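Sequence in, structure out.
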Amino acid sequence: MKRNRRIKIVATLGPSSSTPEKIGELFECGVDVFRINMSHTTHEKLLELHTSIKNVEANYSRPIGILVDLQGPKLRVGEFKNGHAELTVGEIFNLDLNDAPGDETRVKLPHPEIFKGIKPGDRLLINDGKIRLTLIKATPDNLETRIEVGGTISNRKGVSLPDTLIPVSAMTKKDRKDLECALKISVDWVALSFVQRPEDVSEAKALVRGQAAIMVKLEKPSALNRLDEIIELTDGIMVARGDLGVEMPIEKVPGAQKRIITAARNAGIPVVVATQMLESMIDSPVPTRAEVSDVATAVYEGADAVMLSAESAAGDYPVEAVTMMDQIAQQIECDENYLTILHAHDPAPEPTAADAITAAARTIAETLNLAAIVCYTSSGTTGLRAARERPHSPIIALTPIAATGRRLSLVWGLHCVLSEDCLNLEDMVDKACNIAYQEGYAAAGSRILISAGIPVGTPGATNMLRVAFVGQDGKDSL
């Protein structure tokens, strides 16, 4: 299952893609990581999907990542007498804690924490910004607002507060139960929704205790304002453009995407671009030209992965959507301008021996036109360092730990292979040559570069580079 692209594909599972047969088909046509959205998934269904993915993994002997996406705190208005109400621009509209059904003048907002944090002038966006209110005055049990953009408001519509830091945890009771279930079955990645501040990430890390990698979904301006602090704490970042485009001017989202990708690459952590990438393929077998350009932009910018949401979860053409994303990525990575654009803003190596060696590995591989870079990685750190350099040569990440291989399946350019621990340096070189040959990356007579830590098996101690010739039997010919 050698992929002919560096960027990875994340696909969300749902009604259109939850059978074992469909999961296998999606993997065959390009999925590297499967996302399970806990907003729509029971614990029983999570266990069922987990089993199906593991069966596919066993069939193909290839690590497959599982990303469990926690729902996070959902803020919604209450219900109306007639199920809906019409709001008129310029009129006053109140949100309160009263249980009575709402009308054109008021509705319940069952979130007391909002009343504590909001201040006059703050905006309240309802139903993905279709209704826009501005706060005039706040009391402990009532918010008096002016209607800036009116229209029909109906039961249980979502509320966004782009200007307000809400004193609420990013982990709800439901999230904690979902997390407990996910950790029990050893998922690889856990995504946190509606993160506002670094403390939200610290709270989640204390609960996860290193049992899974944490991915922060950036969908609130308050999180963007503290991006560097959040990146220091998390294992990965997702550019969640849907909610981000509601809470900030939509024309600013492309610039935010580029800033986030650059920051993640500098830090050497994976970054996923998500939401509405091939939205029209929910009910069409082909995307729009604009959607193709959108996916292409993420590839050019060096994102680690692109993600499908409703396209693969609930759409009519999940396989076609994955296939299309795979084809777009392959085509862009073959473009003559791709490498120039990709390396226009390369991060400088960190001032450590391991980072300097990894940077040198890219230079050597490109100078000698080597068939592949083979890195031995136990914790995953060496693999992340290699990917951070975005080398032209393919990267084969060898690890004896299945969990490491699954987590790295999300990372740009890494072809992960499970391999037993090496006995010594000679065994290490022979294994690297043989696997590069068997996996179809190196032909007999070609050369590969090996990156590893000596003594063998020392985690995070990349300190060796070795050029090896692949012999007729796939072993080092020297």
